[in-house]
Design brief:
Layout: H1 4-18, E1 29-30, E2 33-34, H2 40-47, E3 52-57, E4 76-81, E5 87-95, E6 98-106, H3 114-118, E7 123-124, H4 128-133, E8 138-141, E9 144-147, E10 153-159, E11 163-170, H5 174-177, E12 195-203
Antiparallel strand pairs: 1-2, 3-4, 4-5, 5-6, 6-12, 7-10, 8-9, 10-11, 11-12
């Protein structure tokens, strides 16, 4: 029972950090701001005075930059906050006056709660080079690759009809190095050790179509 209390508390905290009120967190929105719909005016009305509000800025995905039409694109407007409860940093990116990416740096969020909070499964991102170079460290299950032990920094992804969600995870505490932080079982693909240091919600409208003509 004593072990359950911290997990329950962190689960409730994660809902507060990622969602809004009692709404379930969704991968295409945050605090009522929906990708492809929300405008800068709505953000400014909701959160008031930002730390910065700049135009002609770049956006860099946490992973797989080549998947998105963002290279050399400095046409983004971003609104930056550092005073939102539960977060060290929040950046909101817009194209043509619509929200297309949300970048969040939580103050404290256990990676193990991502699946529970969003209600979706996450894929651990492993490069082909890494698999080939250290094949003994990975195993396959139902066509997906999972690490037998998690590195000190790793990323996970969920892809939905409307958005991508990437999460960067730091797995460097003594407990997580042993794979047993908070009772997490690293053999369970839905259970992730470590703490989330960044989340990016990215609209699929930013997906790159480069090279698709080669397949026609």
């Amino acid at each position: 029972m004593k072990k359950l209390l911290p997990i329950t508390f962190l689960f409730v905290l994660s809902l507060s950090v990622l969602g809004q009120n009692n709404d379930k967190a969704q991968t295409d929105r945050w605090r009522g701001l929906i990708l492809d719909e929300a405008t800068p005016e709505q953000v400014l009305e909701k959160f008031k005075n930002p730390k910065a509000d700049k135009s002609n800025q770049p956006f860099r995905p946490l992973k797989y930059n080549e998947w998105f039409a963002v290279k050399n694109n400095k046409n983004f407007r971003f609104i930056h906050y550092q005073n939102i409860e539960g977060f060290k940093d929040v950046k909101l990116f817009f194209l043509q006056n619509k929200l297309v990416a949300i970048q969040l740096e939580p103050e404290k969020l256990a990676a193990a709660l991502l699946t529970q909070t969003y209600g979706v499964n996450f894929e651990v991102l492993v490069s082909g080079f890494e698999q080939a170079a250290n094949s003994q460290d990975y195993e396959r299950d139902k066509g997906k690759v999972y690490p037998k032990s998690f590195p000190t920094v790793y990323e996970v992804m969920n892809k939905s009809d409307k958005s991508y969600l990437f999460a960067g995870i730091a797995n460097n505490s003594f407990g997580t190095i042993l794979g047993k932080s908070m009772g997490v079982d690293i053999d369970d693909s839905n259970s992730l050790p470590g703490k989330v240091y960044m989340i990016q919600l990215i609209s699929r409208k930013l997906e790159s179509s480069s090279g698709t003509n080669l397949l026609k």
